Amino acid sequence: MVTTMKEINHFFERRQVQLGMNFGLSRMETLLTNLGDPHKELKYIHIAGSNGKGSTLQYMKEILLAEGVRVASFTSPYLMRVNEQLKINGDEISDKDFIASFRELEPFIQEMDSKGNGPTQFEILTAMAFSYFSKKEVDLVLMETGLGGRLDTTNVIQPFLSIITSISLEHTNILGNTLGEIASEKAGIIKSGAPIISGVTAWEPAKVIEEKASSVGVPYYQLGKDFHVSNVKQSEHGQSFSFSLGDRSIENVEMQMLGRHQMENAALAIAAILLGMENIDEKSILKGIREAKWDGRFEKISDEPLVIIDGAHNPAGIDVLMKTLKVHYPEYKYRFIFSSFKDKNYSLMLRGLETEAIEIIITEFFHERAADAHSLYEKCSHENKSINKDWQAAVREGRRKTGGKEALVITGSLHFLSLVREFLSKLSVEE
Question: By mean pLDDT, which of 23-27, 74-78, 113-117 is the weakest?
Fold first, then answer.
């Protein structure tokens, strides 16, 4: 029986290697039945999408906190440590509670393992979240899917509201080869009695989502059609916009998270709050959007040199990153440090960086899913590319080279960023 976080982390690492991602809901339902179905006692907003899930959730959470709601959140992946994935209000689960939650599940995991039907690492973590949140008697749970929607581990819940943030080509070996097919998987979270709010505007995937909403018989609200972002103002230090939904409008919504995509994520959050909650004060909405932060998402680490880390982990994320750089740092030249998981479309991700890069430094990090640096280097066609397999040395090199009107941008994988962010914080202390 485990007694420390170190033991649980090792268990999760081994589990990930042994079982990986194994989709379907039967194991999750068995695990929850053994626990007494704690998920049925909670109230949910369910969030799916290729990008933007975490940011949208963060905006909603800050609004609800400003309103005095006791709100839990389940997100993935984590940036620094696994406890981040289970939070109540702004507080991540303590080591003591995490260990207790895991130990509660341990006999059921062992029993399922003995029958050859053992739960995956993500299924165990999700079940822990349900159990922990139900014990803490929260008012509301913001639940982010892991991957997809229809067969995602979290899709055992009955939400009162669902959100699909965006659709892009990702995990095509699992979710499908077209935007429509991927949208169909994501739309699997749409359930009777839960209106759907969507940030998907491209015709093919938007049509799939709308048709699913119609077949289930729930209201469907689409960004740019039913609610809108306007009066956009952007600078290096922040941005603002106006929001409208029907006859309701909110002017001068200020925010510290940068990029047009963040305004759209914020608009999704506002629409969800207005449509799903009663009597929310406009001051709480403005305060929540203004105070929301999400580490690792276009996060400025230092000014001299200018270092930005961004969790772009697919081609759509890279495209958004490049647009955000051009809007907020238009006079700068960009040097990139890049690493990625091997199951991502890193060829297309690199192509997105190449058009604006003065240099691309390729590196690698230790993880069973990580791409090796040589594979990445071969797919990079930039004339000024280099390879440094030691990612810490690559970061030091990038910082040393960057000066004046240049920005060092580190991207490609959130797991990679978790390592980089901790390393950069130590470097700043040493300096």
Answer: 23-27
Residue 410 burial (CB count, 10 A): 30
Domain around 320: 299-430
Same domain? 254 vs 321: no
Q: Is the CB of residue 385 less than 8 Å from the CB of residue 359?
A: yes
Among candidates 428, 352, 363, 373, which has minimal Cα distance to 395? Answer: 363
- Examine the domain organization and report whether 272 and 209 are in the same domain: yes
Distance CA 98, CA 94 (A): 6
**179-202 tens-digit pLDDT:** 999 999 999 999 999 999 999 999
CA pair distance 122, 188, nearest whole angstrom: 19
Tell me the pLDDT band of 429, cut-offs 50, 70 and 90. low
Q: Among 251, 267, 291, give the residue marking a domain's end.
A: 291
Residue 331 maps to which CATH number? 3.90.190.20
- 32 and 134 housed in the same domain: yes
Q: What is the per-residue pLDDT across 247-276, written as a single tens digit (0 to 9) for each?
A: 999 999 999 999 999 999 999 999 999 999
Statement to judge: residues 264 and 336 lie in one domain: no
* Cα end-to-end span (Å), the chain: 43
Looking at 291, 325, 342, which one is the last position of a domain?
Answer: 291
